[in-house]
Amino acid sequence: MTDTAQTPLARLEALGLTLPTPAAPVANYVPWTRSGNFVFVSGQLPVGPGGAIDPAHKGKLGASVTLEASQAAARVAALNLLAQAAAAAGGDLSKLRALRLGGFINSAGDFGQLPQVLNGASDLVATVLGENGRHARFAVGVAQLPLDAAVEVDGTFEIVE
Is residue 54 a part of any domain in this protein? Predict the structure, then answer.
């Protein structure tokens, strides 16, 4: 349950987290695009403050990565997602309403806990944004992700003025 009296920034700080500097694209795409009040954020990897992926957040779920490590990776990716969405909203998390998160999970063919992996991202977004963090979502298993990341998370947000 979230405290509606707190701002998203205060809730983030209460978790001991800060928004990272939004990562620059590494190929021919933009990190986010805005159409009216809608913001579409490109897939974000669990890249940490040093610009690298923690080795515990690399590899395939159901093979070399545990469920707990994958949830932590999804949380880091969601923090990067929030940083990009905040940039689109002029740096103000309180202007954001999450509409949809998408999770791509680097998984072995028989790994069946895809929704539980994405809970790491969903829980963070819902906690930080409060009622505006409730969202639709999908989680799919894939054969490979960039940089051998365990997860990649993208999202659609609305800017509420």
Answer: yes
Report pLDDT digits (tens) over 4-23.
Answer: 569 999 999 999 999 999 98
In a domain, 22, yes or no: no
In a domain, 20, yes or no: no
Question: Which residues have C-beta within 8 Å of that of residue 18, sequence separation ≥ 6?
Answer: 12
Q: Give the position of tokens 């969601």.
A: 78
In a domain, 41, yes or no: yes
The pTM score is: 0.94
Strands (E), the chain: 32-35, 38-44, 96-106, 136-142, 151-159
Residue 77's contacts (CB-CB under 8 Å, 6 or more residues apart) are 44, 45, 46, 121, 149, 151, 152, 153
CATH label of the domain that carries residue 80: 3.30.1330.40
As a whole number of Å, the CA-based R_g of the chain is 15
